[in-house]
Amino acid sequence: MKLTASPTSPFARKIRILLAEKRIAFDLVEDSPWESDSGVPEINPLGKVPVLETDEGEVFFDSPVIAGYIEALDLPPHFIPGDAMAAVRVRQTEALADGILDAALLIRLESLRPTSAQMQDTAARQGAKIERGLQALEARLQTGHWFHEDKLSLADIAVGCALEYLDFRLPELGWRDLHPRLADFAARIGRRPSFVATRPHS
Ligand SMILES: N[C@@H](CCC(=O)N[C@@H](CS)C(=O)NCC(=O)O)C(=O)O
């Protein structure tokens, strides 16, 4: 299978980690959808990465759908529970982590515009979403090492990618100060070889 991704995309990183944890071989095609000559719009009409192409030529996006496809291959270990309600709960935590990333990306994109063209309230509005999201995640991590059933799941991988993206692009947030359980969690999951091997560098 082939995964098209930009090297620093946190959504693509979630999929790369999932594939690494499951020891599924894949070809990584680096392509930035921000470049004018990007081939991404030809495989994903939405022009976003990650995009996964199966050996049979079927194409999947966006990252939660790709994660669902990878799990549907039924190769251990499993990162989405077989029980339908438990799976919904894992996906809910994934959505929270992905939503934090959406907000962080908007702040980042706004910061790249000339100062005179920046929307003043974007950082505050999106920053508030990030903070509420972090509070919700901190509350979900009341006991145990992992978010669901004390077992590594897609939720943990998604949250780990979101927290490390904040470190990478918005270090000034200093999110660890108010979220000690998430800080412990980030340190723990960040030691996994799959996280170390995919950590973005500026
Ligand atoms: N919900 C999507 C979000 C993907 C996304 O926003 N990817 C960014 C890179 S991190 C992108 O390709 N942006 C290009 C664009 O918005 O035109 C997913 O989970 O795959």
From TrEMBL:
GO cellular component: cytoplasm
Domain GST C-terminal stretches: 83-202
UniProt keyword annotation of Transferase present: yes
PROSITE patterns given in the database record: GST_CTER, GST_NTER
Keyword Translocase set for record: no
Coiled coil, from the record: none
Keywords carried by this UniProt record: Transferase
Domain GST N-terminal residues, every copy: 1-78
Gene Ontology terms for molecular function: transferase activity
InterPro entries attached to this UniProt entry: Glutathione-S-Trfase_C-like (IPR010987), Glutathione-S-Trfase_C_sf (IPR036282), Glutathione_S-Trfase (IPR040079), Glutathione_S-Trfase_N (IPR004045), GST_Omega/HSP26 (IPR050983), Thioredoxin-like_sf (IPR036249)
Name of this protein: Glutathione S-transferase
